[in-house]
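Recall that a protein's primary structure is simply its ordered list of amino acids. Everything else, from secondary elements to tertiary packing, is in principle encoded there. The following example makes that idea concrete.
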Amino acid sequence: MPTASFTAVIKIRGINPFILVSASRAKAIKPSWRKPLPVLVRINGKPDRAWRINMMPVGNGSFYLYLRGDVRKASGTTVGDRVRVEIAFDASYRNGPQDRKPPWFKQALSENLSKVLHVLSGETGRFMARAWKNGS
């Protein structure tokens, strides 16, 4: 599984525990990637089936690997611990919504959108608990 394997200390940013993945390590996982990077992660060899996480770009080529509570619990780790990290690009990742919209939601969204377009096009009407006239 690993494209990158290394040890690091779990740090905290605000209230979010993370591991900083250097630009060179991120490049080994997926070269030239600048947006959230979908990866499969194991911490200290846990779990047997890797977690799916999106690493978040820092802006200089490195990434934050945020560690949710369930990840830390399963791996028996906490902030300040030195851990063994295994990361691989998640090739099965698919961008965008994975499920079709339920018909009731699609209909409600369509009706709401038609109200928005009606009042913003300059027509008189009520939307968002206020009266609209000439688009304002």
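The chain has two domains: 4-89, 103-132. The first strand starts at residue 4 and ends at 9.
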